Records
---
Amino acid sequence: MTDLSVGIIIIGDEILNGQVSDTNSGFLCKEFYSLGIKIGRISVVQDSVTDIANEIRAMKGNYSYIITTGGVGPTHDDVTYEGVAKAFNTDLVLNSQMVDYYKSYCGNVTGNIDKNPQLRIANIPVGSEIVIIPTGSEEPFKSWNGYPIVKVANVIILPGIPELMKLCFKEVKKLYFNDCLSELHNRKLFFNCNEILILSALNKAVDVFKESVVFGSYPVLSSKFYQTRVTLESKDEMEVRKAEQFLRSSLPENCIVDPVLATAGLDVYDLASNTNDSQFATVLKSSIKVIEEAFTSHKPDSLFINFNGGKDCTALLHVVAAVWMKKFNTLPKIRAVHFKSNDPFPELQEFIVTTIKR
């Protein structure tokens, strides 16, 4: 990990009352983890100026940066700017750059906020840094003339709408965290037994590598493929390898599960949700939906995949297996049909036979 640390504040009554699920913190954690930056704290607070201010005060001296999401807008419950201002004992000011930006959406608004409440969104803390984020050419943002991000000291204020927040963070990452990349090496091991049975071996490994490797152990109740997941993380790839080898040498026999079988289903769904390639994500999500509907409408043993050994049907085979594993939580038993040509390539036939055996 780098020496930088980040605190995250998720703002919104809709999160706390369960009307909306928070996905922003999960996204941000993954993004910062990929940069080798430690997330020290995540808080969820209501739309309250005092609560926002108190949380920022508690964090601002302890973390390099604070990221807030939500509470940015012109309505009565959009109070993040006010909360940030209070945290730094400063005032709000109607910022001319922000006013000019929002004129393109609100018309030629003038006067004060009482007469034109839409100007509340341009009322930001004194001394703010403003960055206009390009919004690109994709819907629904292609008609936008960028989007303004406000930064006050070490607090970066992001919108709460997940799609817009992700778009903004791509640019925020380039602006403030581009030089922070510190590759973090990790390994995951999956076990077909309760973590208590590997506790002795795990504790030995933790003690031997406590200065260089971070271990995590997580019981899993929702999978029929494994019961425990152990992670190893370090900035030093060689240390991770040594730690894994040491741990493996101390474990009971036949307790480690093939990672492909352990996580294949979740990996495909995770790829569909988190890939940066929006076009690919759309195609993959559509494919998953079709296969899910097929498994809902038909019995699994009445469905067949046409397998000719090509790249497209091999990819489809993996998606079908992923949906099967997620839906039935068992190893897939997929039926396939192959139409053999009169003059098949030997390599292709060998691949098909190998795939069947697997």
Note: The CA atoms of residues 7 and 126 lie 22 Å apart.
---
Amino acid sequence: MVWKGGVEKRLKIVEKYGTLNYLAEWQGLRGEDLNIDLSEEREIICSKTGMKVIYTGNVEKYCNV
């Protein structure tokens, strides 16, 4: 992958936002279907840290705009 994602330890915030591009790369590496609904957000909970990451196309949620 071009960049590392995820979190090494659970953050104080309850949830973190990620890009759909990262989600697609991650799913591709896992051999999963790349058909991603751009109108929906997808939540994945890290099995290591328990941190919830919400993948979204809404740039304002994952960038400090």
Note: The two ends are 25 Å apart (CA to CA).
---
Amino acid sequence: MYLNLLILLQLLSSAGASESGIVGGKIAKPHSRPYMVSLQHRGHHVCGGMLIREDFVLTSAHCLKNAYPLTVVLGAHDLTKEEKKSRQEIQVVHHHRHPLHRQYSQLTYDIMLLQVNFKK
């Protein structure tokens, strides 16, 4: 009886294992998601985010781990290509993590607002 329960628990714990990458996704039309951003540290993509106002980006708090200062990159459909006409790079001036987020290894309260210095 206990062996069956142990096997069942093992199967259930591995059933929810996440795969890397996007599964079953489709390539978006270029520049059809102008609110999507790439958060970068020293020119390397760290996390994604969403522009929710011209001066604020919503992202995960764990994105800040070992990656400050951050730059917000807007208008880039393909990060491997240089898109000078549409690409904008904006510096993060302040970050606001959820006050109950404590550890980068935990996903509880894993939310953060980034304030950017957007100049028109």
Note: Strands lie at 36-41, 44-53, 56-59, 71-74, 88-97, 112-116.
